[in-house]
Amino acid sequence: MYSSAALNQNYLRGVQVSDADGRVTFTTIVPGCYAGRWPHMHFEVFRTLAAATSGANDIRTSQLALPADVCQAVYAQSGYTGSAANLAGVSLASDGIFSDGVSLQLATVTGSVAAGYAATLQVGVAP
Length: 127
Hints:
Elements: E1 40-45, H1 49-54, E2 60-65, H2 68-75, H3 83-88, E3 108-112, E4 116-120
Antiparallel strand pairs: 1-2, 3-4
């Protein structure tokens, strides 16, 4: 789905089909925090797998924001060089995307660094 120029990048990408209840579950890592942006994951919703793999006609595009306490705990671990400092320099209010309100984009997260986390976000999609 991506050009050969993206093959050596460390971005996590994927396509999944929802279950009969419209739920999607996937395993990933907590994203790092880069300067000026709150930790987040992008997502798009498509009506069909064919539409998703063509990359056209999405019906919802948004971002899932992660709670500060989760980010702070994760960024205290090795492997997140720079993320703790970047997080200290940004807030949801200063983030250019989330500054207009994050209530529909802030995930509910349970778990721990040791056990792993589960993030949940309900996304409304018109029929």
